[in-house]
Structure formats: C-alpha cells, structure tokens
Amino acid sequence: MADAGSAAGPGSRPLADRVKEALFGILEPELPGAAVLDLFAGSGAGGIEALSRGARTVVFVDRDRAAIQAIEANLRSTGLAGPEAVVRRAEVLAYLRERARSDGPFDVALLDPPYDESALLGSALERLGDDEAGILAAGARVVAKHFWRDRPRAVVGLLASDRERRFGETALTFYRAASPGRPGGPPIEEG
Q1: Domain range summary for the chain, segments of one domain joined by +
Q2: Class of domain 21-177
Q3: Radius of gyration (Cα) for the chain, nearest Å?
Q4: Residue 6: is its pLDDT beyond 70?
Q5: Which string of b and e fits 130-148 if b means at least 16 CB within 10 Å?
Q6: What gap in Å lies between CA 84 and CA 11, rounded to an integer?
Q7: How would DSSP label each residue in 174-189?
Q8: Which of 36, 84, 180, 182 is deepest in the core (most CB within 10 A)?
C-alpha cells in the first residue's frame, strides 16, 4: 500500500488503516486501468492508494490550499506524481458542475466530505447520479465515507447502494451506477 504521509491540516480526516484496507480490498478488482475521482481529497490518501493499485488516472479535488499542497507533496514522496495524477483546487460541487464531465468519465469516485458538512455528501451524490451529468461511466463504483448516523440515501439518480461497512463512527456506503436511461440504478446485491 502507498503511504501518503503528509496530512492536509486540522480539518482533514485521514483514512484509518482498517477503513483503507476494507475499502481497497473491495475496490481492488476494479482499479487496474480505472479513471478515479477523489473528491474532498484531503491528503490524497485514497487517490494515491488507487494509483498504487493500478488506476490509470486519478483526479484529486479539494478546496483547501493546505490539502492541495499535501496532495502534491504526497504524490512526490510516493513517486506517483505525473500526468496520471491531476490535482484540482476547487469547491467540489462547482467542480462537478463545471469541469468533471470533461475530466471523466470516471470508473470509480471516492467521496469523503467533512462530517460537519453532511449535506455536501448528498449534493455531490446527486450530481454524480444525475442522468444528464455524464460524469460516471456505466457501472462505475462510487464510495461515500461518512459518519455512521448520517447514512446517505440508498438510491440517488443512477446510483444504487449495494453494500455498507461500518468501522466505529465511520461508515462506507458503496454505490453502483446504472447506464443512463435506467432510473433507480442496478439491483441491490447482498454484501
């Protein structure tokens, strides 16, 4: 596993080791050759881990200058800086409206908004799941990290939740994107 050492600052919530192991244990088969979107990227640990496991490209998005500096430093220290690692300083919702379509489509999206701004998670999922947005590839995997009590909706546009994992106060909700024109997303898998 890649070690993204620099923290983004006092507001960041780095991926705990066991959360990261579970997340990437589930995502690993989908990462080789994938285009990954790391939203609310913080230190970039999620996207850097995806690159280290074979992702073709990762776009890191965060609004905080310290986070962007941490991502860039961590990419350099892991030897993963290059054209496959794109760092964007932007508000996530603005990025999703204005730029994500031209950077995508994405096969995997990771979302880790601040826990005290839980409405951001719902808004970002709505934009990703929008039939008209064109941000995600058909069958894309979206993973939302959130406070366990702030569970996002099970179906958001083309996204349908197919599993959830809880680690103390942290939960991961996994979504699968349906093809455009198939509202409600794919059937729910037992997981």
Answers
A1: 21-177
A2: alpha beta
A3: 15
A4: no
A5: beebebbbeebbbbbbbee
A6: 27
A7: EEEEPPTT-TT-SPPP
A8: 36
Q: What is the pLDDT of residues 31-66, one digit of tens each?
A: 999 999 999 999 999 999 999 999 999 999 999 999
What residues contact residue 67 under an 8 Å CB cut-off, 6+ apart? 8, 9, 12, 41, 42, 43, 44
Whether residue 105 is preceded by a cis peptide bond, meaning omega within 30 degrees of 0, is yes
pLDDT value of residue 1: 41
Give the DSSP letter string of 126-140.
HHHT-TTT--EEEEE
CA distances from 81 to 37, 47, 48, 77, 104 (A): 16, 12, 9, 8, 19
For residue 5, name the pLDDT band (cuts at 50, 70, 90): low
